[in-house]
Structures are given as C-alpha cells and as structure tokens.
Write a structure and sequence with these properties.
The protein contains 5 helices and 12 strands. The chain is an alpha+beta fold.
Amino acid sequence: MKYLASAEQTSAHQSLRAQTPQTQASTASFTPVSSARELREVAPLTIHKDTLSRRARHSPRLVGERAHRFHFLDAPSIDYLQVDGNYVTIHVGDDRYLTRATLKYLSDVLIPFDFMRIDRSVLINLQQVDYIERLESGRFGFQLRRGRYLVSNRERSGAILRLLRSSVR
C-alpha cells in the first residue's frame, strides 16, 4: 500500500504558509492510496530545495577493485580515468583500480565535478592539473600535480580552448 502526503503537508495549503518547517512536520498526515489512478489524482509531495542542494554539493564516490577488494574512491582524489579493454582504470596517485562502468557513463556522472574528456579513452580531473601547455597540431599537454603528463587529441581541442578562455572555474 502506498502513502501520499495530504494537502496539509504541502506548501500550497493556506494554513501552512505561516508555519515553520518544525510545525509542518508535526502536523503531517498520510493518506493510503490503493490504485495508480488515485496516485495520479493526489497532489505530489513537495521537496525542499535544501535537501537537493545538500545532495548536489557532495561529489560522487566511485567503487574500484584492486587485489580482490573493493575500494570507495572520492572523486576529488582521482587523477584520471583511462579505458583498459572492457574495464576503466581509475588512477589515484600511484594506485590503480578497475571498474566495469563505461567511460561514457563515468563522464556523464563526473563532468559536473570538474572532470573533462581530453581523449576518446581518457577522462581527467581538472582539480589535479598543475598546468596545461599548447603542443603542435592542436594538441594540449596536461601536467598533473602528482607528476603524470597526459596529451589530448585534436578532436577535443575546441572544448579545451573554451575551458581556457573561460579562465574562471
């Protein structure tokens, strides 16, 4: 059986507009819903923006495997990700971890957290970049803080130039 909040819990109700969130929580009541039709007819529960913004601020954690152990890796600590056959290798300093997720999926998840594809098979963490230098034939070299040097391909040069021209990140 599903439950939905009654009108007294939503912010659209007149009597609750003046109440604080603490009072709203104490007056909440729930109505049982037995069918999908009734579910569509009842007003949806409102979501507070604070809850969403708190979740959005936290960077994701990836799960990488090394030596038959699974490790939780915070996105800011990752240097870069690289395709390795059917796997993606996650590079954190000198350590390497494997994951079965595709680089396309990982780039969709990580691009809002300062990651950028510099090659078809490489996704780099811009927070770990010490400097970028322009190379011949439209390529760029990325010097990472932990000593690794990665080179982009020409197809990604437009996106890299847009990043460099925006200058504030």
